[in-house]
Design brief:
Elements lengths: L4 E4 H11 L4 E4 L6 H10 L6 E4 L3 H13 L4 E5 L1 H16 L4 E7 L15 H5 L10 E3 L4 H18 L2 E7 H5 L1 E4 L35 H21 L3 E4 L6 E4 L3 H15 L4 E6 L1 E3 L3 H8 L4 E6 L5 H8 L6 E5 L8 H14 L4
Parallel strand pairs: 2-3, 2-4, 4-5, 5-7, 6-7, 10-11, 10-13, 13-14
Antiparallel strand pairs: 1-8, 6-12, 9-11
Helix pairs in contact: 1-2, 1-6, 3-4, 9-12, 10-11
Length: about 350
């Protein structure tokens, strides 16, 4: 049996990144993700890696761009307002087709908001993250073990598809402590990167990393090619968990801490004879559309449980093709729905027989 250690979610991300071969980290402290930077500051010098606290979030994401262009596994982390500052850099990474891992341990917003957990950066993460036509792979852990596993997965997906992968965790996931098995992490070696700016040694033509395309036809060609790649990702990489969906008449959609709260509510509802289950998206992009499309053939209604004013609910409606009602059970501003609140939403859905 693999040994387990008690770790914070933020620490699990940092240690898993090291397991994945990341030796370059650039960041800037902001609650509730600062432990990632603190952990990297302690560990990186001991293994010959680079830790650098940049002068700003903007500087950090551009340092990521530089190391990614040289072909190395690299990451940065921040929390909501800091990710907003990185958004231009995220777009530049996409425009240059560079792989990287970005971690967002979300806090309440908009603006500086507060330091309590939130899921209100869903739109920002899943609909691009910056300007222009692009996507990021977005992974949503619901346990400290998944914080580690999805960090490794994020590096692998980023390298495979030459794009940014984002760990989108709410603040609860970053701060909570659980046993983690790091020995169980399966790490694939990084692929060859013939496009990297590693120096030619007079053996090949120069590689150029750039996101500027002044010829409209050329930029259009790049964008169409990029979206062909995105279609492949949607077909192959969507991940989700189904819980008690075999005979469910009501389907909860939730991720992160909201999914854990919802499981408690589902268990209690089942004791009361209500047939309810859950689909937990693990990839927020690509969104598991097929799972919700199939569920729409089975259930009477959906409930989207979120730590926001209702953002994922739009993707649930799109994926289910609006064939069944979708209602919202939420808290915002750093508050977390209680199992009792979710249970009440389940009871209302059962009482209404699927009607809004």
């Amino acid at each position: 049996m693999a040994e387990k250690v008690l770790m914070k979610g933020n620490e699990a991300i940092a240690e898993a990144a090291l397991h994945a071969g990341c030796r370059h980290y650039f960041g800037y402290p902001i609650t509730p993700q600062t432990e990632i930077a603190a952990y990297m500051a302690k560990r990186m010098p001991k293994i010959g890696g680079t830790f650098l606290q940049a002068e700003s979030e903007i500087a950090a994401i551009n340092m990521v761009y530089g190391v990614a262009s040289a072909g190395y596994r690299v990451m940065t982390s921040s929390s909501s307002p800091g990710i907003s500052l990185k958004s231009e850099g995220l777009s530049y990474l996409a425009g240059a087709d560079l792989p990287s891992l970005v971690v967002n341990v979300q806090r309440g917003g908009p603006g500086l908001g507060g330091i309590q957990p939130s899921q209100s950066d869903y739109f920002q993460a899943t609909k691009g993250g910056g300007h222009g036509d692009f996507r990021m792979i977005v992974l949503a852990p619901a346990s400290v073990q998944e914080m580690a596993e999805l960090t490794v997965k994020g590096f692998e997906l980023a390298d495979t598809y030459r794009m940014t992968a984002m760990i989108l965790a709410d603040g609860t996931m970053g701060q909570m402590m659980e046993p983690v098995s790091l020995d169980a992490l399966e790490v694939k070696p990084a692929p060859e990167k013939p496009w990297a700016t590693t120096g030619t040694k007079l053996q090949r033509p120069h590689n150029i990393v750039n996101s500027l395309s002044l010829i409209p036809e050329e930029l259009e060609k790049f964008n169409f090619a990029r979206y062909e790649r995105y279609r492949t990702i949607e077909e192959k990489e969507a991940m989700w968990e189904e819980y008690m969906m075999e005979d469910a008449e009501i389907c909860i959609a939730a991720f992160g801490i909201a999914a854990r709260v919802s499981k408690n509510a589902i268990n209690e509802a089942r004791k009361q004879g209500i047939k309810v289950g859950m689909i937990r998206p693990i990839t927020l992009w690509p969104f598991p559309k097929d799972a919700f499309r199939r569920a729409a053939d089975q259930v009477n209604s959906f409930i989207s449980v979120e730590l926001s004013m209702g953002q994922m609910i739009e993707d649930v409606r799109l994926a289910s093709e609006c064939r069944k009602p979708v209602t919202l059970c939420n808290r915002a501003g750093g508050m977390i729905p209680s199992p009792d609140q979710v249970l009440e939403a389940i009871k209302n859905a059962a009482k209404n027989g699927g009607a809004n």
